[in-house]
Amino acid sequence: MTTHQQDLERFYFDYAAGLDEQHYSKWPEYFTQECRYEILSRENVEQNLPAPLMSCYSHGMVVDRVAMLVKNTLTYRRMYHKHFVSNVRVLKENGDQLEASANVLVIQSDLEGVSSLYIVGTYLDLIVTSGNRLLIKNRRVVVDSFGIDNMLAVPV
Amino acid sequence: MTTHQQDLERFYFDYAAGLDEQHYSKWPEYFTQECRYEILSRENVEQNLPAPLMSCYSHGMVVDRVAMLVKNTLTYRRMYHKHFVSNVRVLKENGDQLEASANVLVIQSDLEGVSSLYIVGTYLDLIVTSGNRLLIKNRRVVVDSFGIDNMLAVPV
Amino acid sequence: MTTHQQDLERFYFDYAAGLDEQHYSKWPEYFTQECRYEILSRENVEQNLPAPLMSCYSHGMVVDRVAMLVKNTLTYRRMYHKHFVSNVRVLKENGDQLEASANVLVIQSDLEGVSSLYIVGTYLDLIVTSGNRLLIKNRRVVVDSFGIDNMLAVPV
Hints:
Three copies of one chain form a homotrimer. In chain A, about 25% of the residues lie in helices and about 45% in strands. Chain A is an alpha+beta fold. Chain A starts with a helix and ends in a 13-residue tail after the last strand.
C-alpha cells in the first residue's frame, strides 16, 4: 500500500495542477475509456437521492465537458482556481482497482486577485492501474459547498 | 520514521473522516484509556495561560463529549464539516510514544451548502503505539480561529 | 524519488512551522547563500510580465527582509498565520538540484481570533541538496490572491 499511497497522491496532484493551469484538453486523459464523473451535493448523497449537480457517464461526455473551454467558445467570468487535495486514503484494493478518497478544497480568485472558497468536498474514486499509469474509472465529487454561487464552468 | 509518517497521516485522515461523516460514537476509540483532549486559543498558549476553550481530561469525559451528539439529544444548528489535515510532522520519538503535530483547517457548510472557515489550528499530539494501532494520549488543538462564532458542538 | 518526496514535504512543513511560530530570524537559514525569493502575481506570470510584488535577489536581502520583524522595529497590525502546504511535487531532478512545486494556503487570524484567507498560491522552487539538508536556491511564490488587502509584512 505504501507505493500506491505515493503514486495516488502524485496522480491527484498532477490532475489538480492540470486543472489549475487550465490545461483542460488534458483532463479527459485522466479517465478510462469507460468512465463516470459526477458532482453530487452532500445533501442528496446523505439521503440516497440520485440526482447529481452534473454528470458525465461516458468518456465522450467527459471530452465534451471541456470542449467549449478548450475552444474558448464558452463565455463566462474567468476565475483562477487552486486545488488543495489532502487526506488521501486508499480504502480498498481489488486486483488492478483501487477505491480511494481525498478531500478537496478549491479556492477561486477573480481577475482582481480576490480569493474565496469555491468547492469544499470529497473525491470518492474508483481508480484502475493501467501499466504504469493510474486512471479514473469513476469519480464522485461530493460537495459540502453545494450552494455554489457560480456556475460549474470548469471541472473539479 | 518513514513508516511512522505514513501511519500517522493515515491515522489523522481516518480520525478526520470519522468526524466529517459524523460517526461520533467512534471518536473515543481514537484515544487511550488515560487521555486528555483540549482546545486552546493561540492567544492563551502564547502567554502560557492555562485556560482551555474546552477540555476533557479523562476517557469518560471524551465519551461524554459526544454522548449527546450520538443520542441526538442536543439541539443545535446542523452543519457539515470537512477536515483538511496537512503539514503532518513527527517531532520526537520515545519508545512507543510519538510527539507529532499537524495543521488542521475545518470548513463548515450549512444545510444550504454555504461554506465558511470554522477552525484554523494545529494539533499538538502525544501518540502511543498500541500493537498495530496508534492512539491519542494527549491532543491539544491550538486554534488561531478562537473568535469562533459558533458553539463548539462537535469535536475537532 | 520516494525519499526526496518525504524529505521535501518535511522541509516545506518545517519552513511553514517556522513562519507560523514567528521564528523569523531562522527564515534565512532555509536559503542558499546565493538565492532568490520572489512573490509574483499570477496575473503577471501568465502574461510573462516580470514585475514581482516583492523580491529578494541575494541572501543579504533575505536577511534584511526579516530584520525589522526580528528587532520589532516595524509597526504593523499583528496577525497569526497558518500555512497549509499541500500538493507537493518533485518536477525534475538534476544532480543535487530539484525543481519542485507545492500549493500554499495561508490563513490569517487577527488578535480577536477571526480568520480569513490571506495567501492562495503556488511555490515554484529550485531546491539544492547540501549534505543532509535541503535549501532553497530560488523560490517563486505565484499568488492567485494578489489583491491582498494587507501589506506583505511577513514572508510566505
